[in-house]
Amino acid sequence: MDKLISFIRTDIGRFCSQCHSKCCSVGKIIISKKELDCFTKKVFIERSDGLFEVVLKTGCPELKSDCLCNIYPNRPEICREYPIFRHANLILVSSICPYIHEYDEQLEELKKLGARVELI
Ligand code: SF4
Ligand code: SF4
To answer: What is the pLDDT of residues 81-104, one digit of tens each?
Structure first.
């Protein structure tokens, strides 16, 4: 499963310049306390579960005008895993990404391997 997931995360990069970083523009970012320091702008609020989040109304504060990430080498885990997140046999797939359906074949493979795949 990890191999397929890793393939999707890497391969989808070839579409990113075409969608102008939609994933960095809408939705929300949820990070751990230790990841707060990755961000140059302090816009996160603490949640009741101890994590921190920011709702993207005008895009991620680290998204540059050229649609690249200002903190790319230090970006948080959620950005590294996007658009597919694994929690044991549960695979959450972001519906925000306009190119995720390019990977329907791989998502079907994951189901055959016993994963529960959910679009979020
Ligand atoms: S939404 Fe999908 S295609 Fe667009 S930048 Fe994010 S991962 Fe790439
Ligand atoms: S930290 Fe970087 S990769 Fe993550 S949402 Fe912001 S701009 Fe995008």
So the answer is: 999 999 999 999 999 999 999 999
Q: Which pLDDT does position 106 carry in this prediction?
A: 98
Distance CA 23, CA 95 (A): 10
Q: Cβ(67) to ligand 1 under 6 A?
A: no
56 secondary structure, DSSP code: -
Report the distance separating Cα 107 and Cα 51, nearest Å.
Answer: 29
Cα separation, 1 vs 34, in Å, equals 28
pTM of the model: 0.90
Q: Which amino acid is present at 48?
A: S
Q: Whose CA is closest to atom 8 on ligand 1? A: 16
Residue 24, Cβ density class (10 Å: 0-12 exposed, 13-18 middle, ≥19 buried): buried
Nearest CA to ligand 1 atom 3: 16
